[in-house]
Amino acid sequence: MVQKLGAGHTDAQKLGKILGAGAIITGSVMKMGDSLRIDSRIIEVETGIIVSAERRICRENLTDISQNIADMTAALAKKFYKQK
Question: Model pTM?
Fold first, then answer.
């Protein structure tokens, strides 16, 4: 998935430039009934292109949330480094 950031999502890119980072991870959490939707993206700072993205839907308990975050992190890293 390659997606260009819209005008409303430039803060993460600006922060990445200030920090001198090549890429930055952003994300969001949304409550959906008894579940949580967790979205995360790796953004290439120079271009603003989303180079990797993941979404998980999980139950609202610490074990499920922690496992899903660990799985997302591994999947994001795998996609990101595969593209390099």
Answer: 0.74
